[in-house]
Design goal:
Blueprint (H helix, E strand, L loop, with lengths): L1 H14 L2 H7 E9 L4 E3 L1 H14 E12 L5 E12 L12 E14 L2 E9 L1 H9 L1
Parallel strand pairs: 1-6
Antiparallel strand pairs: 1-2, 3-4, 4-5, 5-6
Helix pairs in contact: 1-2
Amino acid sequence: MSKETIQRYFDAFNAGDTDTMLALVSDDVQHFVNQGEVRQGRAAFAEFCSHMGVSYREKLRDMVIFASEDGTRAAAEFVVHGEYLQTDPGLPEAHGQRYVLPAGSFFTLEAGRISRITTYYNLQDWIAQVSA
């Protein structure tokens, strides 16, 4: 079940379907973003998704999903193919730069919902790509 939940989550991400993503997370989801602040709760996660949809256009490819036998933990490795649309505060100026970035996410699942998302990527690699 956990692999299917994570696949649905990433299918929704690639489709830009934030409503489905939000339906798959718990009310008190913890969202840890690489080198960023922890977001607590579905409302904070929704705000993050909204911001991302304005600043970036991304598709995740070459997805491999792993899951524990008991269904409480999962992980995914993928490659982000993106376009930087609107400048994010503290980051280089956006003007439609494209980037390709290996990344991974780790999940905790409780009662069929995602209760923790932790995402990692090489921020310095991304900065170098959008600054070139």
